């Protein structure tokens, strides 16, 4: 569609200039026509550099404002995360102190979860509190090296009696 519009306007220009067209007869005339055309094109973009500079300054200002907003949002997120961590640590310490269990052994993220964890630990510790008989050590009483037994015993006794 844009091609049709462009070609229609180009055809209209050709029709208007076709009746008044005079062939270029010298290099000076060609240079003058080309110079006029270049000047018309330059006039279209005469303020391009100033607009480009303004756009660059606007983009820089907007980026600075956006980065300030982003920095503020990031600081707020960090502060919220730190507050949540402190709340969890405080709850863990309170439950540990109230129940008498080490805070490092409590798991969870809420007071209810810490309470349940403390109950489980106390129940486990209650099961472990009953003393159990030690298992027998099969090595107990066994000789660890060359001792006096059997033939060595008789040799030793003879040596002691002869002295």
From TrEMBL:
Highest taxon, organism lineage: Bacteria
Start and end residues of each stretch annotated as Disordered: 1-25, 123-163
Name recorded for this polypeptide: DUF4355 domain-containing protein
Organism, scientific name: Nocardia panacis
